[in-house]
Amino acid sequence: MNRNTLRATALAAMLTTSAFASQATTIGFMAPLSGPQALVGQDQYDGFMLAVEQLGGKLGGQATTILKEDDQLKPEVGQQIVRKLIDKDKVDAIVGLSFSNVLMGSLPRLAESGVVAIATNAGPSPIAGAQCKANVFSTAWQNDGAAEAMGKFAQDRGIKRVYLMAPNYQAGKDMLAGFKRFYKGEVVDETYTQVNQPDYSAEIAQLQAAKPDAVFVFYPGGMGINFVKQMSQAGLSGKLPLYSVFTVDGTTLPSLGETAAGAIGAAMYDASLDTPENRKFVAAFEAKYKRTPSLYAAAAYDAANVLDLGLRKAAGDPKRLAAGVKAAGGEFKSVRGPFQFGKNNMPEQNYYAFETVRAGGKVVTKQIGTPLAAHADSYAALCKLP
Amino acid sequence: MSASLLFVQLLNGLQYGVLLFLLAAGLTLVFGIMSFVNLAHGSLYMVGAYAAALAYGATGSFALAVLAAMGAALVVGLLLEVTIVSRLYRRDHLDHVLATFGLVMFFNELVRLVWGPQPLFVQVPEVLAGTVQVFSFSYPSYRFAIIAVGLLVAVGSYWLIHKTRVGMLIRAGAQNPQLVGALGVNIGLLNAMLFGVGVMLAGLAGAMAGPLLSVQSGMGEPVLITTLVVIVIGGIGSVNGALYAALIVGVVDTLGRVLLPLVMRQVAERSVADAAGPALASMLVYLLMALVLALRPQGLFPARRG
Amino acid sequence: MSSRFGSSAVLPVLLLAGFAAVPFVATALEQPFWISFFARILIYAIAASALNLALGYGGLVSFGHALFMGLGSYAVALPAFHGMANGWVHLALCVGASALIALAVGAISLRTSGMAFIMITLAFAQMGYFALVSLKQYGGDDGLPVAATSKFGGFDLGSTLPLYATALVVLALVTWWMAKLRVAPFGMALRGARQNARRINAIGLEARRLQLVAFVISGAICGVSGMLLANLNAFASPSSLAWTVSGELIVMVVLGGIGTVAGPIVGALVFLGLEEVLKGMTEHWMVIFGPLIVLMALVGRRGIVGMLDLWPKARRPATPAAVAEGGV
Question: Structure pTM?
Fold first, then answer.
């Protein structure tokens, strides 16, 4: 071909690739931003946006629009939002996906569309097992993980009789199942309460009557605050050891204050973790939002960084994004320590034990152990992904 | 289930019932006398809770917080009465339902708009932060305080309704509003006063509930539905009925929540029983109401009509 | 056509034609999202029409119609959970369960009236809600994903387009039937019972029986809308029985025009459409929507269709026929 045609072709090629490359990225961020769990949703959003800001407002090197949606912790609302994000807004990925019940409700649509979804607050056992999907990830945890760590910790401490409590939904079931998997002592009783139940007086009276050596609970967000407060009002703080997951954490500690002193929790993250990435993260978060980040903020912060790396690996091809994110999981530097995605796209990570103590007139958490290291969940074998 | 545990659960039921009574007392009068279906009563409870939380945070005095709650609820309530409610008295129940439904939406969102979606957490006042020994249990002093306040209000309202002139007008108005109006009593003013007392009690309930439950948008609705059930069981228009029905509902609900799972565990697997138990216990209250309505539609303790 | 239904025949036909055009327009614009959005409107229009039968024609203020929508949804989800995807089974279960429960609820509730009726219908919806929440093995509070959507031979309601078509056909049938019913003997007697039950009883017709029949039919149609909803969302949840849903249905009926034929369609369209528009403007859309509903209650219950009907009449002197038609 002659020189002009060559030039024209080269120009056309450049223009098409640059047009392709300059397509802006749209990400949908869905979390419970109202109701008793709004603390959790807000922390996640703030953590995510902090990462985006640190990346210059770009994910994968492209200018990114983040669509913020409130699922109100209702599975049907979550479904409608997911449908809107995929069909109307044509997002490149969805992050957040709220609690386990909302995630499960949206799963069919997510699976069908193949859009990459990164959960930052859940890892329900069905998705970790038989219903695992190549495009659905969790940068938070597999639901049983923290509870398993707490169970192991209680076992190692020699606690003989434990009373279990959780709200009545998928994650609640998972948590108590996880605890029992590693705790071999006596389970005095297992009580499931209504989701977002505000008053636990009746259950606390039952708890007192049973006289266990310790109580293990899973009450995220507002439920946790109400429960711990009411336990304290009944005079049980300090008398009955409280073991918990997702109950006494960065989001609830400011409201609980002294009532939480002595509580022991297990989680994959706490602001007091001493890694270089975490120190930078906590400093930046506190500077911007004037409060200490919780594990929810950390999970969302990590999600943004994983997504960023994944988008770079996919280089604009939506079909390669899922593989890109999976590979990114093992490569990026998480604030919580070692991290990678397992076969079922659930995190393989450390779980630490923390105690809430009084220090200098305030209550802070300090790490007291690492019951489970580089821990993979027990459902991976059921997952048929390669 | 030992006797002392049963007693403690009874106390819990009593405390819940008393909270319901605070809400039901005002609502039943508004229903009975003005025949006005007020779904926004829960919103006024919420307004009271927010006012108390903010006042307590600002001043540190719980007493002031309670007064602030009642005052705020009164102001908002009277504003609503003058602008919306008074125009709807003569209309159909459907119009009441619609208007107050819209108000519920509005208040829930307004509160979110102004104070954000996160719940506010109120500390129990220091003086009431301890526990009381009940047999082998430590029972929160604060809940005893709620029971005390509720009983005080019950006594106070009895005195108001049966021993004062205003109370006589209220009782007369319940039986025959037109006649009372014809006798020269300013029925409009009486209605407004009644509405005001009702919303103040709702505000008080909100203030008392704050330290126990979290203060957040939408906190009024679950409690409202149960309050409506209480009123229907007790008899619309009857404050006595509201008291007895509130205590019955409170105790049935609380005891149901703890006893039903135990019963169900005999017949079903634990997690199923633990899920079904509280749900069925909640159903119990509605079943009770449906039964009362089917057999005795005027309620168990109706206001005596001449 | 015009003498029997007045000017109101044009409006429903226009609306239904508009709905029929949506899938074509949406596909042309490559925005499939709108098909499922309008499918939702159609489903709520069916539910509102069902409520209109009880509320508009019958005068029964039912605050518990969400119960039937929920029953319809679970009539799909429960068999699907056990592997049954046959649409006919789902439909039979749906209509059967809704009608039976409506019969029970109606028989008890109609022993009361006024405030008590509102409360007792609410109570039954709440009971349904708690009953479903207690079914832990069927998801409980989390809801139940529909494992297998309704299949009628090769026709799968789980895909958006077949669902849309079905919903449109059902709505058209229901609307046409409601229009005919309005002036049929049963409908007239029912509306008479709403205006003055004593007179109807005096003529020899049993008002309560008429109302019960209307309530049962209303419940069954509402159940069908629930079945369609479950297929649309591939999900059934107890929160669809929340009292707020019942309240929203009432708002839709009244907003559109209580007792009119096109009212429920207009009501559902305006309610859900306005909600979507406002949501796009601000996340605090309820601050605007709430007062709008209050305003609607204050201003008067003609509803949109009612106001449209009045408009040409305002310029014509009132004739006896026009008055009888315009008055609901």
Answer: 0.84
